[in-house]
Amino acid sequence: MFLHAEKTVCHGGHGDTARFKYFAFAVRAVVHMLLVLLVGLVTPAAWAQAPAQPSAAALFAATLHDFDDKPFAFEGLRGKPLIVNFWARWCGPCRQEIPELAAAHDKYGKSGLVVVGIALDDKVESTRDFARAYEMRYTGLLAKSGGIALMQATGNPKAVVPFTLVIDRNGQIIGSKLGAMKKAEIEAAAKQLLGSQ
């Protein structure tokens, strides 16, 4: 490497030598990082390929509960294009995306799109009242105690909400988003799902 500072060329006390060695070390580190970056840009990178999506098997195997506290086998939704949103009553960003998810349900529901909100809650009445207050017109379910494990199994290892899955008619997760989805993202997901009929 052209920047090698074993010998000091500074005149002065030991402090100058130490500062020069530190400076030379810092310069070598910066040059090394730039070379790594340059090599990464020139060579084909694995990140250029879309990462493999997790399986939706755990979701389709789950039995959740509807807002009347009746068991709901998620397997009954297999074969339908799905936007599945994990949310919680206490989550501000979750509240912000509810109107957009409801609008997607209204606009694309007749074409076969199913929007599902899975609440990380076990309080049926409170969740039902919240859903009514926020005009959640799409399918609402409660994960009860299984919500964290279900999110982790579907690609959200830290179990953070909001978390949204886009699942095609073949039951494959074709996209996911950690954080609130914007209207344009929901529209794009719906169009992609319905375009793959």
Descriptive labels:
single chain; 197 residues; alpha/beta; Glutaredoxin; 2 domains; seven-stranded mixed β-sheet; 7 strands; 17% strand; globular; disordered N terminus
Quick structural gist:
The protein has 197 residues and is of the alpha/beta class.
Mind explaining what this structure looks like?
- The chain is α/β, with parallel strands linked by helices and 197 residues long.
- The chain folds into two domains: 1-49; 57-195, 3-Layer(aba) Sandwich (Glutaredoxin), CATH 3.40.30.
- Helix content is 41%, strand content 17%.
- It contains six helices and seven strands; from the N terminus they run ααβββαβαβαββα.
- Strands 2-1-5-4-3-6-7 form a seven-stranded mixed β-sheet.
- The longest helix is centred in the first third of the chain and has 29 residues, at 14-42.
- The chain is globular and about 35 Å long.
- Residues 1-27 and 29-50 have low confidence and may be disordered.
Show the helix and strand layout.
Blueprint: H1 14-42, H2 57-61, E1 63-66, E2 71-73, E3 82-87, H3 92-108, E4 114-119, H4 124-133, E5 139-142, H5 147-153, E6 163-167, E7 173-178, H6 183-195
Q: What proportion of the residues is helical, as a percent range?
A: 40-55%
Q: Order of strands across the widest beta sheet?
A: 2-1-5-4-3-6-7
Whole-number total of structural domains:
2
Quickly give the structural class: alpha/beta
Strand content: 15-25%
